[in-house]
Amino acid sequence: MKKIDHIAIAVQNLDEAEAAYKDVLDLKWHGREEVATQKVLTSIFEVGESRVELIQPTAADSPIAVFLEKKGGGLHHICFEVDDIETEMARLKEEGARLLNETPTAGVGGSKVAFLHPKSCGGVLVEIVEKP
Amino acid sequence: MKKIDHIAIAVQNLDEAEAAYKDVLDLKWHGREEVATQKVLTSIFEVGESRVELIQPTAADSPIAVFLEKKGGGLHHICFEVDDIETEMARLKEEGARLLNETPTAGVGGSKVAFLHPKSCGGVLVEIVEKP
């Protein structure tokens, strides 16, 4: 794992949360992106070598909508950048980790991503990403 | 906010979670630290410019024990590094943020820390730290 790529935060109201991260926390705003496959709208901030992503569901069956209903929002997952996702996934399987994807999935901007089950990561949903 | 200083994860069983972050996720282990004032034992990992801290309560009235009981563990808070904590706290108050500390508190290794209420940060407990 090279670095924290991003921290994802599930929110009910993206406008309100975005204003808080812009004006109150004063993080550098990068912009918004819609991820149709996950049925979410994200608002992205930069801080050091990492990003903070606020995530609002765009449909009732979005995985984030389910999380909001259960937990009421807050920190959702942590994503680490890796050099080579296929090698890393093979290593993780070897170590007995429970992967939620058998092969890497297409992420934003040509990246490749995969998720690890919280049971393998001390109760935290972990994503790994290889940048193009 | 300069960078993500650390991400804190509340765990029921530090030995188990520590093994997962060492062996499965393969993060660089820094060591353990007990924070008596918070009644917690932490296991610290380094990744890029940030750290991941696993936190286990050492007493039933630790704030982390309360969180574990309510939420069952997982991502607990995010900490951003700032240059000057007094200036940043004054700016945050000016912006209407709800601070959980009136003045900075002593953190690990001579650092100064303060917490922001989740209501001011899109539902996330946020810590700020000034390093010595």
Can you describe this structure?
Two copies of one chain form a homodimer. The first copy, chain A, has a single domain, classed as Roll (2,3-Dihydroxybiphenyl 1,2-Dioxygenase, domain 1). Chain A is built from three helices and eight strands, in the order E-H-E-E-E-H-E-H-E-E-E. Chain A has an eight-stranded mixed sheet. The first copy, chain A, is globular. Chain A starts with a strand and ends with a strand. The mean pLDDT of chain A is 95. At the A-B interface, strand 1, helix 1, strand 4 and strand 5 of A face strand 1, helix 1, strand 4 and strand 5 of B.
Highlighted features:
homodimer; 132 residues; alpha+beta; 2,3-Dihydroxybiphenyl 1,2-Dioxygenase, domain 1; eight-stranded mixed beta sheet; 23% helix
Secondary structure blueprint with pairings:
The structure is a homodimer of 132-residue chains.
Chain A (H helix, E strand, L loop, with lengths): L2 E8 L3 H11 L3 E8 L4 E8 L2 E8 L5 H9 L2 E8 L3 H10 L10 E2 L5 E5 L9 E5 L2
Parallel strand pairs in A: 1-4, 5-8
Antiparallel strand pairs in A: 1-5, 2-3, 3-4, 6-7, 7-8
Oligomerization status of the protein chains: homodimer
Largest interface: A-B, 47 and 47 residues
Number of domains of chain A: 1
Count of individual helical segments of chain A: 3
**Terminal Cα span of chain A:** 16 Å
CATH homolog superfamily of chain A: 2,3-Dihydroxybiphenyl 1,2-Dioxygenase, domain 1
Largest sheet report of chain A: 8 strands, mixed
Return the CATH class of chain A: Alpha Beta
Low-confidence stretches of chain A: none
CATH topology of chain A: 2,3-Dihydroxybiphenyl 1,2-Dioxygenase, domain 1
The CATH level-2 architecture of chain A is identified as Roll
Approximate helicity band of chain A: 10-25%
Mean pLDDT across the residues of chain A is: 95
